[in-house]
Every structure is written in structure tokens, then in C-alpha cells.
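Crash report, auto-generated. Payload:
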Amino acid sequence: MNCEKQMSMLRKIQEIQFVAVELNLYLDTHPCDADAINDFNCAVQILEKRKKAYQDEFGPLLNFGFGGYSKEPWQWVESPWPWEI
Amino acid sequence: MWIYEKSLQHPVKVTCPDVSFAKLVVTQYGGPDGELGASLRYLNQRYSMPTNKAIALLTDIGTEELAHMEMIAALVYKLTEGASPKDYEAAGWGGHYVQHNHGLFWTDANGVPWSAQYIACLGDPIADLTEDMAAEQKARVTYEHLIEMTNDPCVKDMLRFLWQREVVHFQRFGECLNDIQEHMGKKNMWCGCTVEK
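Recovered output after restart:
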């Protein structure tokens, strides 16, 4: 079980996702702030990269096809669930 | 449509199970100022907002609140992990064990079940956004009370994260309210007559 690596990759996703959430809410009320849009796009670029690396190894992070491909057997049903971590 | 992401927004850790604190913090799951009410309040108010900015903000904050509800659920799960019926009884939460075992349920700290009466939708953007700002302040204060009631540094850490999200949401709702007032002022909706643009 490569739990430590999985947790550390997940933590890096949470970190950059928080940046994206903050910028998203800020931009909802400041839609003309070009610097913030640039920061948002940069965060999304990093987020996509980190998510892809995680999902290639540990399976989909999102359901319904939004999280990429699954290996066999179906990886979505694998632990740990978020509250078990 | 909503998509589930198999990750918490912020890590939830506990040093050791604590059923007494689970009984208290469950109010942020299903209490009057909790995360269930917050998410449903904002997601439901979107349909009567007059600007795209307000619709987007309510959608996004409502979605974030669902993630916060999941964090509180994870916290209650961990605080009660491995607890025996006697542990529940000792914590004064025997009633929860009898009715729900280790399952979660939406109640406040006094066992009162969640009610739609905790949220409002007047269909008026000024009334609704003002309610949202008050809701964020009430949740902030509740988190402050909860932080005072635990000595677990891990629990304090995640409660502080949720506390500061209330502060940010209040700020964004305030900006949104200003924007809506400007928007409505242009149409002079206050006095019911049209003025020159």
C-alpha cells in the first residue's frame, strides 16, 4: 500500500484547489481583475497537472467520468474514503 | 449537476475520539447555523437573484458549504470512531446511540433535528443577501464557541479553517450586496417609478 505517497499527492491537490476556490469567489465579485484571472488560470494549470498525476496512479478523484480513466478492477470503489483518511 | 470529488476540502484529523465534543460540534452539521442549512440556503436563493454575479457567488459558496458539511461529518465520524454505548452514555449522548448507533444525523447540540425554518428565501435580493451575511456571522460565532470547547489541537485547526471561511464568505456577500444595490438603484426600484438613465 502506497498510502504515504497517495496522502502527500492528495495534500498538494488540496493546497492548490484552495487557491482556486479563493480566487474563484474573489473573481465572482471582481470579474474585471485581470491579475486575479491570470492567477486563477495559473492555479488551474497546476491543479490539472497534479490531478492527472494522482488519477493516473490511484484512479478517478471525481465520479461520472469527470475524473479520467479507471484500471481494472473499477477503482472508484477503492478505499480510503475522505473521512477514513 | 454536481460532481463528487473523493477528497475533503481541508484535512480532518483528531488526536483521539471524543464523543462529548461530537455531541457539540454536530450542531455545525444540522443545527440552525450549520453547514447543511448554509448550503441549502444559498443554492435555493440563486433562482431569484437579478445579476449573474450574485447567481455565480451563491452557486459557488453553496457548493463550498457542501464541502464544509462533509468536513463536519468526517469530524463527527472520527470523534465517535470505536466508541462504545457506554462512551455515548458517559458523554450524555446515549439518545443518539439508541436512535442512530454510529450513524450521523442532522441535529443541533441539543438534539433538535434540522428544520427548513432555519433558512429563508424572500425572493428579494436585498433581504436574502442580508440574511446570508447574518448567517455567516452566526456561523463564525458558533465556530468560536466550539473552538473554546475543545483542547484537541487537530480539531482546533480544522475548526479555524472553517471559521475563516465564514469571514471570507461574509466579505464576498457584502461586495455582492453593494453591487446589487447599485444595480437596483439604476432601475430606481425603490420608489416604483422609472427615471432617466
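Post-recovery validation: The mean pLDDT of chain A is 96.
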